[in-house]
């Protein structure tokens, strides 16, 4: 249990797009936090003390309560600052669009993370290439959909409604992860793979 005056603590490395979107949102909402740069590999047991799933992001509140799942954490942050500052549009088409874009981008990131884990956590002789190709196809299809939606709103426009929203933050965090971890920009010209 933390003492009542403790700041919020965000657990997880910023190379995770899910941790990164929480950190960027906290920054934009002016919510101070301490950062624990814990790895899901080396610090698994430490993370499990706060999150039974051993996953990041995990956010510890002032009273020690642990929040897990980036979507649920973002919802808490919006609720904490109130509707006038919330990053997810409150209602209507902008909210629906933002949630759909976040789902597509989040899905792409999950499929990318699975590809990374195939090499990080699995010995070479146990890797299954068709599964990796399937994840890659799903990731690239999701990115195509995001490209289409970005083109539809036009250059310089926000993705969901007239203001910066969580859709823009999530897409930016996930794209930068995909670029760094998957070298996506480098092989953007390559044709999408197919799954037999
Ligand atoms: N749906 C989760 C995904 C979080 C996620 O995949 N986190 C990864 C790091 S990028 C993780 O904790 N991996 C360790 C594991 O799943 O065992 C969220 O949005 O918070």
> What would you say the CATH architecture of the largest domain is?
Up-down Bundle
Number-wise, the strands total 4
CATH C-level label of the largest domain: Mainly Alpha
How many domains make up the 3D coordinates?
Answer: 2
Distinct helical segment count: 6
Low-confidence runs (pLDDT<50, min 5 residues)? Answer: none
What's the end-to-end separation, in Å? 52 Å
Class of secondary structure makeup: alpha+beta
Give the percentage of residues in beta strands: 5-15%
Top keywords for this entry?
196 residues, 2 domains, 51% helix, single chain, alpha+beta, 4 strands, Glutathione S-transferase Yfyf (Class Pi), Chain A, domain 2, Glutaredoxin
Structural description of this entry:
With 196 residues, the protein is α+β, with helices and mostly antiparallel strands. It has helices spanning 17-28, 44-48, 70-81, 92-120, 129-153, 166-182; strands at residues 8-11, 33-36, 58-60, 66-68. It folds into 2 domains: 8-81, Glutaredoxin (3-Layer(aba) Sandwich), CATH 3.40.30; 92-182, Up-down Bundle (Glutathione S-transferase Yfyf (Class Pi), Chain A, domain 2). A 4-stranded mixed sheet has the order 2-1-3-4, covered by helices on one side. Helix 1 runs antiparallel to helix 6, helix 4 (92-120) runs antiparallel to helix 5 and helix 4 packs parallel to helix 6. The N and C termini lie far apart (52 Å). Glutathione binds at residues 16, 18, 40, 54-57, 69-71, 113.
Strands, helices and their partners?
Layout: E1 8-11, H1 17-28, E2 33-36, H2 44-48, E3 58-60, E4 66-68, H3 70-81, H4 92-120, H5 129-153, H6 166-182
Parallel strand pairs: 1-2
Antiparallel strand pairs: 1-3, 3-4
The structure holds glutathione.
Glutathione is lined by residues 16, 18, 40, 54-57, 69-71, 113.
């Amino acid at each position: 249990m933390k003492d009542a005056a403790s700041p919020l603590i965000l657990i997880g490395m910023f190379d995770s797009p899910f941790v990164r979107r929480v950190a960027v949102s906290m920054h934009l909402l002016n919510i101070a936090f301490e950062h624990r740069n814990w790895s899901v590999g080396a610090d698994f047991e430490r993370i499990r003390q706060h999150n039974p799933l051993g996953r990041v992001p995990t956010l510890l509140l002032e009273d020690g309560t642990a929040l897990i799942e980036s979507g649920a954490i973002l919802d808490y942050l919006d609720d904490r600052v109130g509707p006038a500052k919330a990053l997810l549009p409150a209602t209507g088409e902008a909210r629906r669009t933002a949630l759909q874009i976040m789902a597509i981008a989040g899905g792409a990131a999950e499929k990318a993370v699975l590809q990374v884990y195939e090499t990080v956590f699995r010995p070479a002789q146990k890797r299954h290439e068709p599964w990796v190709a399937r994840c890659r196809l799903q990731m690239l299809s999701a990115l195509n959909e995001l490209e289409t939606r970005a083109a539809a709103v036009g250059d310089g426009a926000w993705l969901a409604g007239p203001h910066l929203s969580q859709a823009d933050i999530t897409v930016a965090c996930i794209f930068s992860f995909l670029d760094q971890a998957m070298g996506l920009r480098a092989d953007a010209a390559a044709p999408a793979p197919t799954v037999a």
